[in-house]
Amino acid sequence: MSDKESADSAPLSPQLLLDRDLVRRVAAGEDQAMREVFDQHFETVFRICMHQCRQSADAQEVSEIVFVELWNFPQRFHPQRGSLRTYLCLLARSRAKDRLRQTARRAQNQESAEIDLKAAASQKQRTLDPAAHAESNDRRKLVRTILDSLPVEFRTVLELAFFESQSHREIAETLDLPIGTVKSRVRRGLIRVSECLKATGVVERTEV
Q1: What is the pLDDT of residues 152-164, one digit of tens each?
Q2: CB 190, CB 114: distance < 8 Å
Q3: pLDDT at residue 140 greater than cutoff 70
């Protein structure tokens, strides 16, 4: 008999039996069981996510993803391999790392979009090579087309930021908006530009 088979056939401790029965109730769609799981383990899961993500909002969202995953796929928990707490902790670390990679990719794509917007806003040519000159013009036209296609709330803040060189605070004063709203719209607008550039093949997708 293999070590895995031995472990799977070993008697469960009282705590593991409790975990098994609780997850079985979750699998049966019992809301109360899910609330019990949440009450028992949310603090631990959130602490792990916070340690990894460093941002409370991200940690909160990733923690919720962990519990939603348990709700949707309770069969993935195997009490023979460890407690429910251990399972949720491992899942939290994995999903937090996924979020960090996603955030890094998004930041990279936003940086690329910022560069393209700044180039589109500039009228100066930095090269005398005809081919490079034509390619640069085509890229600026594409970025301008993408910008024009955005919803007005995103297009306006991006135009002010990159074509008028206004700071977030200046944009907030110009549009009479909270500075937090301005920052959010700039960020979301850059994401839209990045997604459109990727769709055209200008920005390559980053593989994990």
Answers
A1: 999 999 888 888 8
A2: yes
A3: yes
Q: Is residue 109 part of a domain?
A: no
Amino acid at 84: L
**85-118 pLDDT per residue, tens:** 999 999 999 999 998 888 777 766 666 677 667 6
- Which residues neighbour 181 within 8 Å (Cβ) at sequence distance 6 or greater? 172
Share of residues in the chain with pLDDT > 90 (%) = 46
Domains of the chain: total: 2
Residue 36: which CATH number?
A: 1.10.1740.10
- In 3-state terms, what secondary structure has residue 118? helix
- Structural domain range at position 145: 122-199
Q: Are residues 28 and 69 in the same domain?
A: yes
89 and 143 share one domain = no
Alpha helices per DSSP H over the chain: 3-9, 14-27, 31-53, 56-72, 84-121, 130-149, 152-158, 168-175, 179-199
Residue 133: per-residue pLDDT: 47
Whether residue 206 lies inside any domain: the answer is no
